[in-house]
Amino acid sequence: MIATTSGAPVASHVHLRHRNGDGLGVMVWVSVGWLVLLSLSALLADWLPLADPADTRSGIPLSVPTSHNLLGTDQLGRDLLSRTIYGARVSIVVGIAAVLISAIVGGAIGLLAGYFKRKVEFISIFGADVLMAFPTMLLAASIVAFTDSRGLPTVVLAIALIYLGPTIRIVRALTLTIANREFVLAARSLGATNARVIRREIMPNVVPTLLSMMIVAVAGAIVAEGGLAYLNLSVAPPTPTWGSMIAAGKPKLDISLYPVLVPGGALFLTVIGNALPVLQVSPFWQSALTGLVILAAVLLNARGGARNSRQILDLPAPPPHRSAA
Length: 325
Description:
Elements: E1 2-3, E2 9-10, H1 12-23, H2 26-43, H3 80-116, H4 118-133, H5 136-147, H6 152-178, H7 182-189, H8 194-230, H9 242-249, H10 258-280, H11 282-301, H12 305-313
Antiparallel strand pairs: 1-2
Helix pairs in contact: 2-3, 2-10, 3-4, 3-6, 3-8, 4-6, 5-6, 6-8, 7-8, 8-9, 8-10, 8-11, 9-10
C-alpha cells in the first residue's frame, strides 16, 4: 500500500501490474514470433514447397526477388529463401548444443569448485582462466583448424569451449553465495551428505540463473558459428550456413546486395529476437524457472524423502504394521 497527499491509501499492485504489462511490448512478441517461425520453418523445411538449396537452376544468378524466388538468388542461381531456411538448421543446432554442453560441464565443475573449494577450486578456476585468456573466435578457429575436421560435432565442441570458462566462474560464484545461506548450514548440521546438499539445496537455486544465461548465450553461439562459417571453418559445403552465404556473396556486393542482406538479416533478427525477450521479462522468467526447478527437485526426491529424513535425524525405522488376527 502507498499513501497519497490526501492520506487515502492506494493499492500499489495496480501500478505494478500496469508497469509489468508495459514491459511486454510489441517488440517482445515480434521477437518471439520470429523465433517460432524460424524454428518451425527449419524443422519442417523438407515438407515445405522450397527449392533445393543446392540447385543452381532455381533462377537467374543474382536475381532480385520475384514471384518464383521470393528473396532472390545468389551468384550461382540458388534460391536464397531455401538456403536461408536450411542454413537456420545449422545455426540453431550449433547454438543450442554448444551452450547446453558448456552449461552441463561448466555447471558441474562450478558447483564442485564453489562447494568443496581448496584444490578443486584452484584447478577449476585455473582451467577457466586459461580458456578465457584466449580470444574467443581465435580459440574456436584454432580448434577447428588443428583438428582438420569441419563436421558439426567439431564446430559444436569448439564453440562450447568458448562458454565453458565463463560458465564455471558464474556457477562457482553463485555456489559460494548459496553455500553460506542458513538453509544449507541447517542441512549440514543435520548430517546431510555433500551430494544431498548439492542436489537438494544448492542446485535448485543455481539452475534458474544458469538457464537465463544460457538463453542469452545461444545468441552469441549463433554469431560464433556465423563467424567460423565466414572464415570457411564451419560445416563444409554443400550444407548452407548463414556465415558461408555472407562470405560467398561479399565479392558480388557491387552487383547485388541480396546474397549478403538475406542471411545477414536473418542472423541479425535471430540474435536480437533471442536476447530481447529474456531482457524484458527476466524477473518473471527467473521466478518461473525457480518454481519449476524446485518442483522437479521435490518430485525426484519425494520417493526417498521419508527414508532420507530418518537417516539424517538418526531415527529408528518404524515397526512393521501387523494386522489384527
